[in-house]
Amino acid sequence: MATRIAINGAAGRMGQRLVALGSEDNDLDVVACFEHAGHTKFGQDAGSVAGIGELGIRLAEETSAQYDAIIDFSVPAGAHAAVERAVHAKAALVMATTGLEEEHQAKIREAANVIPVVWAPSMSTTVNLTMKLCEIAAEALKDIPGGADVEVLERHHRFKEDSPSGTALRFGELIAYKMGITNHVHGREGRPGARPHNEIAYHAIRTGDNPGEHTIIFGLLGETIEMTVRASNRDCYASGALQAAKFAAGKKPGLYNMNDVLGL
Ligand SMILES: NC(=O)c1ccc[n+]([C@@H]2O[C@H](COP(=O)([O-])OP(=O)(O)OC[C@H]3O[C@@H](n4cnc5c(N)ncnc54)[C@H](O)[C@@H]3O)[C@@H](O)[C@H]2O)c1
Ligand SMILES: O=C(O)C1=N[C@H](C(=O)O)CCC1
Fold first, then answer.
1. Is 122 annotated as a binding residue?
2. Keyword annotations for this protein (predicted)?
């Protein structure tokens, strides 16, 4: 039986790709497309907005349809609404929205006590694999003589509202844990002096229509490792989220990540 999914933020850049790819997946049934009532296309057919032709589902705030999972690619306020919708519907939640305040994050963790939640700043297979590779590098370099300087560069489209990316922050969190680093720095200016060892720095580039690119640098004396992972469109995230919805539907309550979904 197909997994019935609701999409929260369905008219957005990601939401439109979820509508398109979800509609062509025989193992999925898109049954609800939620949007903010103030969106210029609110009330329109979600399929038409996504450019795939009429789906027979309108962009709305409510639905009478039953769904097994709700996928959220919206904004912090929308994520809050998605958590409430998922708990009320006793549906699985796939949380992809980034830039969440601590109160929103706490609400997601609380919801995971009663519903299955897949929560990841990137649903991309290659990004999550690169995170694993960076953890291996961090473990290997944590005590290297002369030290390893870790810098995280991220590059996204001009419309992105949060900075740095949730993915960059997650890369830093994973690496810092492995290397015992406690100081996280965002950009540099003035005369900060020589770079201390106990530091990970983040640099956010916002330019054009870049769908997402991360470079993690391990800088040693005399040699450097750089790992770059880049998306050429948004479908890597959408397909990962749809896979997460299939994984989570029917699971026992708990907090899952993309390593669970991808078997990494
Ligand atoms: N985890 C991942 O793999 C991944 C990948 C891409 C983007 N993202 C994140 O997803 C989020 C959305 O990215 P985007 O580029 O699609 O943004 P977007 O601005 O194009 O889309 C967000 C949509 O959410 C809608 N929205 C706002 N409030 C809402 C509410 N209360 N209920 C329902 N919908 C509401 C907006 O109207 C808009 O259509 C961002 O936080 C981004 O960082 C995550
Ligand atoms: O387009 C965006 O916004 C993206 N945000 C994610 C993040 O903040 O980590 C990564 C994928 C693209």
1. yes
2. Amino-acid biosynthesis, Cytoplasm, Diaminopimelate biosynthesis, Lysine biosynthesis, NAD, NADP, Oxidoreductase
